[in-house]
Structures are given as structure tokens and as C-alpha cells.
Amino acid sequence: MLPVVETVEQVWPAHGLAAASSESVAKGRVLYNIYCAVCHGGDVISGGIVPDLRYRVGGLDDAWQSIVYDGVLTASGMPAWKEFITREEADDIKAYVAHEATLGLARGERRLIKK
């Protein structure tokens, strides 16, 4: 018999980021699917191994460039993408993630995490 895993519902935070242009979101969607989806999940829905960025995008706003572009978290497995994308493209990816977060909140999505 498998052990019982205690869970709690994760509160979906409103990220507070300004809405981006539809062009920026569309560019970000393409770039996310090329560089991010393999780890962070399609449609920005994580399978649980790595963070679900929709829940964290607001809190990562100030550090986004350092994480995505500069690679400040490479020791934790998050690669630097500066050889492949521009800073503006990193912001487009953030715009897409924030857009998906807004949609998820509006749809009333829920997620359980380990206690």
C-alpha cells in the first residue's frame, strides 16, 4: 500500500503585473514552447517537478532577467538562455507566463501541493 500524501490547496496569487501587448504574449508563447515547456510544462502548467511559473511570475518579476537571461539559478538546474534569446525576448516569455496566470485565475483553476 502506498503512503498517504497530505496535500493543501495552493492559493492562486494575483500577479499584479501589467497586461502586455498581444504581440508580446504571442512572441512569448513561441519562445516559451521552444525553451521552457520541456521543463515547465505545456501551457505553463508544471507537472510538479519544477515550479509552476503561473503561481510565481509576480514574485519573480524583479529577478526574471537574472534567472532566465543571466542564469543565476544554474546551480539549481535552471539554465541561462542569454546565448539564445535577447533580454526583450525574456520579457516576452514573462508576458506569456503572466497572461496564462491571469487566464488560470479567471478560470478558477486549483492545484494541490504536498503539505
Give a verbal description of the structure.
With 115 residues, the chain is mainly alpha-helical. Helix content is 43%, strand content 5%. The protein contains five helices and two strands. The protein has a two-stranded antiparallel ribbon with strand order 1-2. Helix 1 packs across helix 5. The longest helix has 21 residues. It is globular.
In CATH, the homologous superfamily goes by the name: Cytochrome c-like domain
Structural class: mainly alpha
Distance between the termini: 20 Å
**CATH fold name:** Cytochrome Bc1 Complex, Chain D, domain 2
How many structural domains in the coordinates? 1
Mean pLDDT figure: 93
Shape: globular
- Supply the number of helical segments: 5
The succession of helices and strands, N to C, reads EHHHHHE
